[in-house]
Amino acid sequence: MNAKRELPAKENAIFKNILRNYEHKQYKKGLKLADTILKKFPEHGETLAMKGLFLNNLEKKEEGYEFVKKGLRYDLTSHICWHVFGLLYRSDKNYEEAAKCYTHALKYNKNDMQILRDFALLQTQMRHYDALIETRTQMLQQKPTNPPFWVGLAIAYQLVGKYDLAIQTLEAHESALREMPVNFEHSELLMYHNRLLEEKGDIQAALEHLNTIEPKVCDKRALKEKRAQFLLKLNRSEEAEKAYRQLISENPDSYAYIRGLIAVKGFDSGMKEDLSLHDLTAEQQSTMLGIFDDIQKDYPRSNAARNLPLNYAKGENFRNRADVYMQTALRKGVPSLFVDIKRLYTNAEKERIVEELVTGYAKSLEENGHFNEDGTQAIEPPTAYLWTLYFLAQHYDKQRKTDLALQTIDKAIEHTPTLVELYMTKGRILKHGGKIEAAARVMNEARELDLQDRFINSKSAKYYIRDDKIAEAEKILGLFTRPDAASPLQDLTDMQCMWFALEEGDSYQRQGKLGKALKRYHTVDKFFADYFDDQFDFHTYCLRKTTLRSYIDSLQFEDNLKSSAYYIRAANGAVKAYMTLADIPKTANGMDEANMTEAEKKKARNKARKAELKAQKDKENKPPKKEQVKEEAAPKKADVKKPTDEDPDGEKYLKTQDPLASALEWIHPLEQLAPKVIDTHLLGFEVYLRKGSLLLALKALVNSHKIDKNNGQVAKNVTRFKEAVKAHPPTNEDVKAVIESQLATIS
C-alpha cells in the first residue's frame, strides 16, 4: 500500500463520509469535507480524486479533471483514483477511455463490487458481450443471493447466442423462487425464460414450458399470442385455429390475429406484411374470403375483417366488397379513407375499379343524392358528397393528374369552405405539381382556419421551409414553442424535432449555404447519439425491475438505430454537402484557390488575415449599446443561463480538412445497417470514386445494381466507373481481373 494513502482515524472517518456524500449526491457537502482533509494532507491522491469528482458533478469539468489527474500522480495504484477517473470519462460519454480506467482499477482491487457493477454496465453499453460474461460471472460468485446478478449473467449468455447456458443460469435462479407468490417480476422472469427457449429454436419445449408457467404469468395476452404462434409453427392446425379464434374474439380488429388464422388455413401470404395482390386460384380465393366472411358475420363491427379481403379479392368480387367498404366510410366521413385504399393501387385493375366506383358516387350524389344511380337507397347526408370529392381529388393527385385534382378539390372547397383538410389536400396537390410557393400559401390558409391546431401549424411551417422561406416558418413555429426559449430553433432542437432539422438542412443546401445545412444534419446525428447514450441507465433499471423482454427488444432496437429513415435522409444530405465541398475546394475564409497562382494565394490570405484582425479590433473597441448599459446598471434578478450557439452558420463544418473522409463517417453506418437501401450504395460510389478507391466504388456499384438494375443513376455510374478505370488503370493484375469480372456481370 502507498504510505501516503493511509490517513489517521479522524481523517479516515471523514473520507468515508465523503464517499457516502457522493452516493447520496451531496456534492457541495462532500467538497467541503475533501478540503478539510487536503489542508492537512495535500498529497492524498484519493481525496484529490474525489474532489475532482465533486467538481465535475458541480459543472466544473476542467477543474475536476485536473484534480483527478493530480490524485493519480500521487497514488497511481489506487483503485479509487482509477475508478473516479473512469466515472469522469463515462460522464463525457467517452466509454473506451472509461473502460481502460476500470480495467486499471480492477488490477488493484479485483473484487470491488461497485467497480465490477459499473464495468458491467459499460461493457453492455459498448456491446463487449464476451467480456461482459466474465464480469457478470465474477459478480455472481461474490454475491450469489443477488437476483439481478443471475438475470444479468443469463442475458449476457443470450447476447452471445449461448442459449443453453442462459437457460441453465435462469433455472438455477428459479429453483430458489419456487414458493414465490404470483407477481409481475416473477411473471416476467418466466416469460423471459420462455423467450430463450424460443430463440434457441426448441419450439416444442417452449410450448410445454408455456403450459407449465401459465398459472404464474400475469401477461395473459402475451401468453395466448405465444401459444398460438407455437402451435402454428408446430403445424398443430386445429389447436392453432382455436387459439387464434379465441384471440380474435378478444380483439376482432387485430390484423395480426386474422393473418395468423389465415396462415393456419394454409395461406402463407396471410402472415406477410406485404399487402400486394397475391396469386391465388379461384378455389383458394373463395376459401380465404370465406374466412373473412365468417369473422365479419361473428363480429360485424370489425374493420379489419372488411379491410383485409380487399387485398385478396379479384374482379367483381373485389368491386362488390370495395363498394360496400367505401360507401360506409364515405357516409361516416372518414378522412383517412384514401390513405387506407391507396395500397391497392399496386394493382392496375383494382385502381381502375376504385376510380369507376368513386366517380360514379360523385356523379350520382351530385344529381340525386344517392351513391347509386338507381336511387333505391335512402338520401345520403350532404357530407357524403363532400368526402367523395375529397377522396377523388386525392385519387387524381396520386395519378399526378394535377389539373383534374385541383378542379375536384376546388369543387369540394366551394361546397364546404371551412374544412381544414380540403385546403391541406389542395396544398399537397400544388406541391406535387411543383408549385411550392402556391402550396405554402394555401397551407397557410388552412392554418388560419384553426389557429389552435399544432399539426396544421407544423405543416404550414414545413411548406414555407420547402419554399426556402425559413424566417416565416420559424415565426409560425414560434406560436407553439416555449415562450421562455431563446428562439423557436433552439426549442425545437432541445425537443429533438428531426423533421424540422432535416427540412431546414435541405433548404439551406438548395440555397448553397452548406455550413448551415451541415449544421442541421449533424444536429440530427447528435439526436441519434443521444438516443444511444440514453439507454445507459436502463442497463441497471431493467434488471432491477425485471422488464427483461422489453430490455432485450430495446437493445436490439438500439443496435439498428441508424437504419432509421430519418438518419438515412440526414446522411444523404450531409454526404452531398461534403461532396460539394470536395468538388469545389475552398480555404477557411471562403477564397477559391483552385485557379490562383502562388502569389495571388499569398496576397488573398494576407488580405483575409488583416480583415479578420480589423474586425476583431473593432469588436473590442465598439461602445456598448444603450440598452446593454441600462441592462448592466439594473440589478440582476436571477442568473439564468441561456444556451448560446457559438457557430450559428456551421463554419467549423466548412473548415474540414478532408470533406470526403467526413462524408465516409456518415456512409459507414449506412453500409452496416441499411445495406438494402439503394441510396447507401449510390452515395458510397460517389465518395469512393472521388477518393480513387476503385474496388470500394465497384463494390458499391455492384450492390446498387443488385437492388435496382433499372435505376437510371446506376447505368450512369457504370459508364463513369469504366471511364475512371480507363483514365487510371490499376497496375495490379488481380485487381484488374476482379474489376473486369464484376463489370461483366452488371454490364
Q: Please, could you describe this protein's structure?
A:
There is one protein chain. The protein has 747 residues and is mainly alpha-helical. It has a domain at 3-163: Alpha Horseshoe (Serine Threonine Protein Phosphatase 5, Tetratricopeptide repeat), CATH 1.25.40.
SSE map:
Blueprint: H1 9-23, H2 27-40, H3 45-57, H4 61-74, H5 79-91, H6 95-108, H7 113-126, H8 129-142, H9 147-159, H10 163-174, H11 184-200, H12 203-213, H13 220-233, H14 237-250, H15 255-264, H16 282-298, H17 303-307, H18 309-312, H19 315-332, H20 337-341, H21 348-368, H22 382-398, H23 402-415, H24 420-432, H25 436-449, H26 454-466, H27 470-477, H28 488-494, H29 498-510, H30 514-534, H31 538-545, H32 548-559, H33 565-583, H34 598-621, H35 626-633, H36 651-654, H37 659-673, H38 678-691, H39 694-707, H40 712-727, H41 733-746
Helix pairs in contact: 1-2, 2-3, 3-4, 3-5, 4-5, 5-6, 6-7, 7-8, 8-9, 9-10, 10-11, 11-12, 12-13, 13-14, 14-15, 19-21, 21-22, 22-23, 22-24, 23-24, 24-25, 25-26, 26-27, 29-30, 29-33, 30-33, 33-37, 33-38, 37-38, 38-39, 39-40, 39-41
Region (Disordered): 596-654
TPR repeats: 79-112
Biased composition (Basic and acidic residues): 609-654
